[in-house]
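Sequence in, structure out.
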Amino acid sequence: GPAGCAAGATFGMRGDDVTIVDMREDLRIKNGGPGPEQRSINLALSTRGLTTLDAIGCGDRARELGVPMHGREVHALDGRTQFQQYGQSGQFFLLSVPRSALNELVIDAAEKNGCQVLFGHKCRDLSLDEPSVTVEVGKGIERKLQADVVIGADGAFSRVRAMMMRKEWFNYSQDYIPAAYKELSISPENGKDMRLEALHIWPRHQFMLIALPNLDRSFTCTLFLDRDQFDKITTPAHVKEFFQKWFPDVLELIPDVEVQFFKNPTPGLMTIKTYPYHYSDKALLIGDAAHAIVPFYGQGCNLALEDVRILSDLLEAHGGILSTVLPEFTEKRKENADTIAELALDNYADMASRTASAYFQMRKKIGLVLNRIAPKTFTPLYTMISFSNVPYSEAEQSAQRTERAITGLFSTAVVLSVFAAGTAATFAAVKTYNTSTRS
């Protein structure tokens, strides 16, 4: 994945001897299309992810391959749309990038920085205390790789983490949410009239559909829906009925939705928390291996890439002394990873329901007004999360202060409204009384 190769590139830039082991074949070698294990879902890169890509020399290329999304295009059930811009003047954007394109970029960056990448090598065994990794290089043929440190960037079902779980004092939790997801796609022809530079959302309160743009004007879509509701959709007729009821405009955009629906899998969504992220000075977990989060803040990949930047900063600050770097990495990242994990869970309600709420929009506008008046004091949470490198925990604490200020303004506005209404009613009553008295 992106984090592993980005970490390899970072160590390579320091002059370290780096070997990256990937059980998949080289995805840059096209053999009739993507393999069955490659996901097509787009990634929304924000400032945190782009900062790391810039550091390893592939940020500009990522911007060329992606589409900037300057706001949300919200699609109501009746077909009306509303564009909700990020920031005050459109200066902010998320970058929609195909997952495969990003993976290819970071593999190239790793190799350019001296990393050896072993494709088609499956991890068979791992010794944390040596440390070493035993990989299968062919049928019945194994090879043992010795190292000073093993970085586990092997995803939510990490083999490195599984070995760390055998050690004392390692904590691990895994929690699935009720929602699952289904990938769909809008062709360039059918998506040609959609706003290109926007994250499209069809909020339906308990579920939602989103669409991220590609350079060819196609859109990669994801339907988020509770698993038990997915289980009720068992025939093409059920699919058509479901979309006709909840997403009637999408039927024109995805005329073969019944085919796509049953062709693509329905994976679950989970949060993984671990502690510590390191074992002695021998092993370290980054990315989903350390802290998988649900995708509703668009920060999973950005969080993983930010791990690489923080690790690089610590290596620089401590002269590469791993016995100091790895424990400090755990302490710096744990609170922030847990914070964005909870924010991502909460943001599902924002995307699925509140984006269509007038109350939500009013609070957002008040937040923008406060930001315009005092930008250093009142910065919206979404801005700090997506368009800055402010630590997640600090961003949440700052946002809580802003929320208290907005709530106070709301309360004041309500009181003034009630007072004004009461004054008007009293004036009308007095006027009526005076008129009656003169009569």
